[in-house]
Design brief:
about 260 residues; alpha/beta; Rossmann fold; 6-stranded mixed beta sheet; 4-stranded antiparallel beta sheet; globular
């Protein structure tokens, strides 16, 4: 498994062109234009009900937009065949059944099903791939542990390893720190930053932890049905509290730089 692809010219991996989505009579997304380039670490932020999870599901092909086009790696979404190139960790992983009888290694190995198919044999080097994926998230020593014996933060790392085992170029996470102890949130984001910078994995995440993630991200998208801002983190930091509040409909804490705390 080779995640370190070297430095290249940034190329678009996900393009959303004039996307809208409607649940019956409720407009969830309106005229969304968003391009995510290789190597970015993008945080999508917005108030509850702003359409963040819906936007991720459209990127993943789980929802079809009411209007507009989705391009993945330069191809229309309905023609894209490399689903294993996009890893996904949903909010549901935070409510995982702790009684599920599987080891950490078995959970990670199951992530290959998307790549090899449900009824195909695992490759001969599957154990090595499991070890590499777990090592990337700092969980190699837990391979033989039961998944239910781990903390919420440790389980999240395992689910990310499960997404990584298919060697994706993009990792999409929906509120990944829900269920992670607050004292471990910064080390969790430090791990994601390592994947982004050292393994050249493009990361897209929905989060409310704007402060905690600030040292890791490169770009921010502010969403409230429409995208009100999309650009470099530093450009957003320069904006006024009043402008952000106008977008959100309530007060918003701006991205802050704090000393990094490892745990």
């Amino acid at each position: 498994m080779n995640w370190n692809r070297g430095n290249k010219m940034a190329t678009p991996l996900i393009n959303l062109n004039n996307i809208s989505y409607q649940y019956e009579q409720t407009k969830a997304l309106i005229d969304i234009n968003l391009t995510i380039a290789e190597g970015e670490f993008l945080a999508i932020i917005g108030p509850n009900g702003s359409g963040k999870s819906t936007l991720l599901k459209i990127m993943l092909g789980l929802l079809k937009p009411t209007k507009g086009e989705v391009f993945l790696f330069g191809k229309p979404a309905n023609q894209f065949k490399g689903k294993e190139l996009i890893g996904y960790v949903s909010q549901k992983s935070n409510s995982f059944n702790t009684g599920f009888p599987a080891t950490v290694g078995e959970v990670v190995r199951s992530g290959l099903v998307k790549k090899i198919g449900l009824f195909h044999r695992y490759p001969k080097d599957v154990q090595m791939q499991v070890r590499q994926a777990l090592k990337a998230v700092g969980m190699e020593q837990f391979a033989g542990k039961n998944i239910g014996d781990l903390s919420g933060g440790q389980q999240q790392r395992v689910f990310i390893a499960r997404a990584l085992i298919s060697n994706p170029k993009v990792l999409i996470l929906d509120e990944p720190t829900v269920g992670v102890d607050s004292k471990n949130v910064r080390s969790f984001y430090h791990m994601l930053s390592h994947l982004n910078r050292e393994h050249n994995i493009t990361i897209v995440l929905v989060t409310h932890d704007v402060d905690a993630v600030s040292k890791s991200i490169s770009h921010v998208a502010c969403l409230n049905q429409r995208i009100h801002f999309h650009g470099f983190k530093n450009d957003m930091e320069a904006m006024s509290e009043e402008q952000l509040e106008a977008w959100y409909g309530h007060a918003v804490r701006k991205v802050e730089h704090r000393s990094e705390v490892q745990s």
